[in-house]
Each structure stands twice: as structure tokens, then as C-alpha cells.
From TrEMBL:
PANTHER family the record matches: SULFOTRANSFERASE SULT (PTHR11783)
Highest taxon in the source lineage: Eukaryota
Family the entry assigns: Belongs to the sulfotransferase 1 family.
UniProt enzyme class: transferase
UniProt-recorded Gene Ontology molecular function terms: sulfotransferase activity
Protein name (Swiss-Prot/TrEMBL): Sulfotransferase
Length: 347
């Protein structure tokens, strides 16, 4: 049930979210293991992808090291705020999460931080330090930091809708969700490059491909992940906004307007005339984000350490063609076509 706890951290009168790292002291907060939950919640099924153990939680594959945290989060650990609802960004990894974080943060915080301001948080913080990944905070037991974030809270998750707290999943809380999906062929190529850039145990492209096809990749099966959010967005478009990476690439300005409208902060005529939308698009562009010192040098620590620069690569649609045969591409497309059949979702 949504409660008002945390609402004492008053909403900042239209000023939008505060960057996570500006609001809390992550390093000063010791990590603690999440409370152990019944083993029954985690099925005995396990797969190992080159040293990384994945376990099955409610039909989805989750890192072994994250499972207890995910269960704790779902069982009420993440308490949605009532008066000023939270905004949760959801995605499978490598679907454009970093970009969405930047766009949503810049749009929602534009009153406090005009996008052209030289000291904008996105010019000194990685987008992941502006918008926290709740799954990883629960995994390392730093979830209490979420209580310190002033409203409106802007947060993210890689979990499917059914692994979120019940009131978020069923729509009875005031939480709004923005989901981004991506062509799975490009996504898996991106996963493969990301692993290489971070010196993770070698996983061939074929292994990544197979894990997507047979549903055993992290947060997979991917079709169920996408379908849950797709159906929720069809049932209640005011609660769940469903975006596609490829469409954002084509029309970033329209996406920014859509985001603003969805979170109840549409652009005024004055803002339109002042080209604020274009400023946000420019601030969040791959070129601009990649060129920031913090994104060239920093490290993100979510149990595994990832370099900030590894989140920015080509940022295009269709790169899979440089890595896969057309036959492999068609095979994955046909699996997805089958799984998504009748839903109206095409990717
Ligand atoms: P590629 O590896 O295909 O280039 P995530 O943020 O979910 O981890 O996804 C990373 C993917 O999004 C990478 O894709 C990355 O290059 C791309 N990306 C990151 N920032 C972007 C931006 N500002 N604009 C477009 N694409 C971006």
C-alpha cells in the first residue's frame, strides 16, 4: 500500500527530482546484506553464464547476488510515495537506459536546472548517479537511501513489472512508469560489447545470442519483460508510457515532449519558443554526454564495477548487421514474433 512516509521530504514545488548523488552520501552508507527471505521465493533453477550465476525468481532470471534484494524490494521494501508519486524508468539492460535517465531527469528538473546551465548535474554526474537503480541498491542493502530522496523521486529498475511491489505492479499506487525497449538484436550486441569493455569474463556473441533466444539472459525472458509493460501501458497509458529506442533516435524532441506531458510538466509556449526541448536533446545527446569528464573517467559500482564510458558506444539502430548473419537475425525475430503474437507489440 502506498503511504505518505517520505512525503515530509516536501516536493520542491515543480522543481523536479534532485540528482541522487547530490541528495545522499552513497559512500558513507555501509552496504548491508538484505534480510534473508524464504528460499521458496527463489526456485532451485540456476544457470551459469561464464561465472555469473542466474537464479529464477517468479519466472525471471536474476543475478544470484541480486535475488534476495529483488525479493525484499517486491515484498514491500520499496514504498511508493503517495502525495507526489514516484517516476520509475524501466528497461532491460542496454535498451537505452542511460539516455532515458538523462532525458527524463533533464526534462523533469528543467526548472531548477535549465538544460543550458553550465553547472547542470548531467555535466558533472553520470546519468546513473542522477537516477538510482533501485534493484542494485536493494541488492547491496543501501535501499534506505531511497527514503532520503526528496519528492518527486526519479528512479530506475531492470526488473519486470511483476517483480515490483504489488501496488506499483497493479497500479494502485501513484507511481508512473516509463519503459524503454529496443530491437533485441542490437541490444544483445550492445550487451556483448559492454561486457568486453568492462573486462567481464569472456562471453562469445553466440552465447549472448543463445541466452536471449532461450530466455535465460538477465531479467529474461525478454518477451515476457516487454509484454508485461506493454499490456500495462495499453490498459492505462496515463500510468505506463512505452517507448522504443529506435523511435527516440528518430524523433528525440517528440520523446522529450511526450515525457514532459506524461509526468504532468508539459512545455509552455514560452519554453517552446525558447527551444528548451532542443536544449534538452542536445544536453542528453551521446556526443555531449560522452564528452563530459565524469563520463570519460568515472566508475559505477553495482556489485560489479562498470566504467562510465562503457555506457556510451555507437548509439545507433541496426548495428547487429555488423556482427550477425541475416539468418541469425531472422531466427531471433521469428522467436519474438511468435512470443509477441496477438499482443500488438512489434519490435
Ligand atoms: P550501443 O552499445 O548499441 O551503442 P543502456 O544505457 O541501457 O546501458 O544502453 C546502452 C546503449 O545505449 C548503448 O548502445 C549506448 O551507446 C546507447 N546510448 C547511451 N547513451 C545514449 C545517448 N545519449 N543517445 C543514444 N544512445 C545512447
Amino acid at each position: 500500500m502506498a503511504n505518505t512516509e517520505g512525503d515530509h521530504l516536501a516536493a520542491r514545488d515543480g522543481e523536479g527530482p534532485v540528482a541522487f548523488k547530490d541528495a545522499v552520501d552513497v559512500e558513507a552508507t555501509p552496504a548491508r546484506p538484505p534480510t534473508a527471505h524464504t528460499a521458496a521465493a527463489v526456485s532451485a533453477a540456476r544457470v551459469t553464464l561464464q561465472g555469473q550465476q542466474l537464479v529464477r525468481v517468479n519466472g525471471y532470471w536474476v543475478f544470484d547476488s541480486w535475488a534476495q534484494g529483488v525479493i525484499a524490494m517486491r515484498r514491500g521494501g520499496l514504498v511508493p510515495r503517495a502525495t507526489v508519486g514516484d517516476v520509475l524508468l524501466a528497461s532491460l539492460p542496454k535498451s537505452g537506459t542511460t539516455w532515458l535517465k538523462a532525458l527524463a531527469f533533464a526534462t523533469m528538473a528543467r526548472r531548477a536546472w535549465p538544460p543550458a546551465s553550465p553547472d547542470h548535474p548531467l555535466r558533472r554526474l553520470n546519468p546513473h548517479d542522477c537516477v538510482p537503480l533501485v534493484d542494485s541498491l536493494f541488492a547491496v542493502g543501501r535501499d534506505k537511501l531511497l527514503d532520503e530522496l526528496p519528492s518527486p523521486r526519479l528512479m530506475s529498475t531492470h526488473m519486470p513489472l511483476s517483480l515490483l511491489p504489488a501496488t506499483v505492479a497493479d497500479g494502485s499506487s501513484n507511481t508512473k512508469i516509463i519503459y524503454i525497449c529496443r530491437d533485441q538484436k542490437d541490444r544483445l550486441v550492445s550487451v556483448w560489447h559492454f561486457r568486453k569493455r568492462n573486462d567481464l569474463p569472456d562471453l562469445s556473441l553466440q552465447e549472448v545470442y543463445e541466452s536471449v533466444c532461450n530466455g535465460t539472459c538477465f531479467a529474461g525472458p525478454v518477451w515476457d519483460h516487454m509484454l508485461e509493460y506493454w499490456r500495462a501501458s495499453n490498459a492505462d497509458p496515463g500510468r505506463v508510457l512505452f517507448l522504443k529506442y529506435e523511435e527516440v533516435l528518430q524523433h528525440p524532441g517528440n520523446t522529450v515532449r511526450k515525457l514532459a506531458h506524461f509526468v504532468g510538466q508539459p512545455f509552455s509556449n514560452t519554453e517552446e519558443e525558447a527551444d528548451v526541448v532542443a536544449e534538452i536533446v542536445k544536453l542528453c545527446s551521446l556526443e555531449n554526454l560522452r564528452s563530459q569528464k565524469v563520463n570519460k573517467e568515472g566508475i559505477r559500482d553495482v556489485i560489479i564495477k562498470f566504467s562510465h564510458d562503457s555506457y556510451f558506444r555507437k548509439g545507433m539502430a541496426g548495428d547487429w548487421r555488423n556482427h550477425m548473419t541475416p539468418e541469425l537475425g531472422e531466427h531471433l525475430d521469428s522467436i519474438l514474433c511468435d512470443k509477441l503474437d496477438g499482443s500488438g507489440l512489434t519490435i
